Amino acid sequence: MPTNLIAANAAAVRATVPLTTDISPADLTRPTPCAGWDLRTLLAHMTSEHRSFAAAASGQAIPERFPDPVRDYAAACDLVLTAFAAPDVLNREFTLTQLGPQPFPARQAITFHLVDYVIHGWDLARSLDAAYIPDPAAMAITLSVARAIPTDANREAPNAPFAPALPVPPDADPLTEALLLLGRNPAWSATPQPSTPTT
């Protein structure tokens, strides 16, 4: 795993921001690969998670506001990257209330965040039918984590962070493999595909 986790996480987060630049109000109702979530819900979740991790890293409460989903998302990215850039951040423990009361070592918590934003970056891109090329260092960490997450009954639980793993072909590229291992369908598209005529 690359030693510069902070830089890899920052690259993963920054890669998501350009995807939001041209989002229009009409786009906010577009479907996403996250079951039951439209683009507005996905952006709100991503914004809330950035704020939550920033609060855990800094030890300061950060109010959640969503007056403008796109601008608020970019502001939340700045908040979390600033919090993670503190010189001693890797010596801290993070309490992430959405994951329970127990604190996590900073390196583990920031790895959670990185994986989430590599995958959610893909979710954003697919919702918008946009290209997405994750940072190589961030992708390497994400794939390593995806390979280590157990495929067990917890994947079937309501609100599980990842769906059951899907089969991985031997020629899969790193992003495709990570998506499949984390239960995402790499072929998902917001644009309905034409059906193949039957003969």
TrEMBL record:
<protein>
    <submittedName>
        <fullName>TIGR03086 family protein</fullName>
    </submittedName>
</protein>
<dbReference type="InterPro" id="IPR034660">
    <property type="entry name" value="DinB/YfiT-like"/>
</dbReference>
<dbReference type="InterPro" id="IPR017517">
    <property type="entry name" value="Maleyloyr_isom"/>
</dbReference>
<dbReference type="InterPro" id="IPR024344">
    <property type="entry name" value="MDMPI_metal-binding"/>
</dbReference>
<feature type="domain" description="Mycothiol-dependent maleylpyruvate isomerase metal-binding">
    <location>
        <begin position="11"/>
        <end position="125"/>
    </location>
</feature>
<dbReference type="InterPro" id="IPR017520">
    <property type="entry name" value="CHP03086"/>
</dbReference>
<dbReference type="GO" id="GO:0046872">
    <property type="term" value="F:metal ion binding"/>
</dbReference>
<dbReference type="Pfam" id="PF11716">
    <property type="entry name" value="MDMPI_N"/>
</dbReference>
